[in-house]
Structures are given as C-alpha cells and as structure tokens.
Description:
Layout: H1 3-20, H2 22-28, E1 35-36, E2 39-44, E3 92-97, H3 98-109, E4 122-133, H4 143-156, E5 176-186, E6 188-196, H5 203-223, E7 228-234, E8 238-241, H6 243-248, H7 257-271, E9 277-285, H8 292-309, E10 313-318, H9 326-334, E11 341-346, H10 352-360
Parallel strand pairs: 6-7, 6-9, 9-10, 10-11
Antiparallel strand pairs: 1-2, 2-3, 4-5, 7-8
Helix pairs in contact: 3-5, 5-10, 7-8
Amino acid sequence: MSIKEDQSRFRDIVKGKIKENFRKYVSQGEMIGKRENDFVKIPLPSIDIPNFRYGPKQQGGVGQGEGQQGDDVGEPGDGQGQAGNNAGEHLLEVEFTIDELAEILGEKLELPRIQPKGNKNIETTRTKYTGLAPVGPEGLRHFRSSYKKALKRYVTTGSYDPENPVIIPIRRDFQYRSFKKITQPQTRAVVIYMMDVSGSMGDEQKEIVRLESFWINSWLKKHYKGLETRFIIHDAAAKEVDETTFFRTSESGGTLISSAYKLCQQIIQDEYPINEWNIYPFHFSDGDNWSGEDTRLCIRMLREFFLPHTNMFCYGQVESKYGSGQFLKDLQKEFPNDERIVLSQIENRDKILDSIKDFLGKGR
C-alpha cells in the first residue's frame, strides 16, 4: 500500500471519528478555536496509537519479566501521582479544510444540495481531468497507470521474473493525466447576520450564535465560492460591524428589532441586486422586542421585502432567562406555512446541530 493510500485511509478514519462525535465538536467549539486561514486543526484524543503486546515465546523475540499473553506494554496510567519527567498522553491534531468539514456536516445532517437562484452571470474557469495521455508535464504523471503499462510490457516480452519482480517503467510506459479548461457560470451569495446585543443576550447566548454561524458559513461556502458575509448588531439602534465586534459587543439598552431589518434592507438594496445575488439574512435574538407595534413593522417588512427577495429568511431564538421569547411566537402565528421563512428555537449548545438542520435542511 502506498503512502498516499495510507494517508487517505487515515483521513477516512479521522472523518469517521469526527462524524461520530460531531455534536460534541459543534457545541464545544474545539474546531473553531484552531482556525488558520482556510484550515481547521482538530484535536482527536481518541485514536489509539499502536503499541507492543506481550505474546507467546514461539512467536519470536526475547524478553524478561512477568506478563500474560495479550497484556499491553507501556499503556499510560490513570494520571494520578506526583509530577515527573516522562512523556504523557498526546492529543493528535489533524488539519481539515472548511470544505471537508462542510462535507462532514452535510453527511451528518443529510443536508440537500442548495439550488441557487438568480442570474448566473459570472463565468469561472476550472480544470477538468478527462483521461490519460502518453505525453504531458511530469507533475501530472500517473504512477499507477505507468506502472501497469510497464508490467504489461514485461509480461508480453517474457522478461517478468516472479522471483525478482522489479518493474522499471521507461519513457514509452509513462502515462499523464490529460485535462481541459471548462468555463462555467458561478452564482454569488451573501449572508447577512443580525444579532440582538442588548443586556439580555449574555456571553453564552452569543457563543451559541458564534458556533452556529461558523457551521452555516461552512456549508454555504461549499456551494458558493467567494461567499460574502456582513454583520449587524442592534439594541434599540442598529449598526454594521466586523465579525470580531459582532460577537464581543454587549449593550444595556432596549431592543428595537426593526432597526436591524431596516439596515439589512438598505444594504441589500444598495449593494446586492436581487436578480444577481443569493441572499441569506439570519437574525438571532432572545425574543424580546420593544413593543407590539415594532413587531408588526418587522412582520410587514418580512412580508413585503425579505420573503419575496431573498433565498430564505432565518430567525434563530436563543433561550435566555431574561428574554420573553415572544418574537418567535409572533412569527409562528403570522407565517405558519411559509417555507420562505425558517424559525428555530436554540435552547442550549446541544441544540445547535438541530438548529442548523432547521435552517439548511431545505436546500434553498
């Protein structure tokens, strides 16, 4: 087995481990804390490292001391006792791309592929490998095919020796991957996150939003290359901020949800023509609003602007002991059967995965 095949098999094992414990990774944020550009370092403590085992004498080898067949040799202890100078148990860190994590997310939640809307007016060029050719750049030489062709030559000429099976490809055996450039349309997408940062939205509520938005972005990036993200915070007033400010800001004022919806609408109208962009507004709040009148204004904006002009409008209500949760109830009452608006109640971190399924499970 080649080194590449070993690496591929190992990564398949790691993917299986991540998928098996996916809810833990999503809720604890272990992946997000180790982001580096487009890669994420994942700590995996549960993959066993091979070690020697005590066996019967007839299997060869020498040794002394007590032991029974099958006993581990050098198994780590229980971690108790005084400090020492010996090595301890190590965590294994494996790098994955955001796209690979999105693939695991999609498999775990059985998410459908997104069907983009809007004009596909941007063309991109990509390379498609179409087969094998006898000539090409050395970087594209296909080792397995070249080896097979050399083996066939050895067999047909009678020079193959089973006792000494050395195969040396020559120039005429070499096979190269052939390719062609393909021009294809590409759709554009923007995600606009809005979050209530009034006093009732504490650090835990914002951490839930941070974790969930990371996975939402990961899935959308798999379908839209060059995905844009915008961030709006609001209490009684709204303003656009960067991502760091979005998750770290706390205010003590009241809550006027329509302020965020007005700013979001303005950004869309000014910068994202609806016939060219796939638009995903996400709003997170604990459900408190200043007044019933402002809630009615929000409902009117949803009905007249957001629902007709965006792929879908997503509202996630993060549970807080200070929030009434009334806004979710009002939206459920006004839009009981409208698939263009997706509502999700996020009671705690363990519900993040379920909420992502709510938002992305329709493939819009």
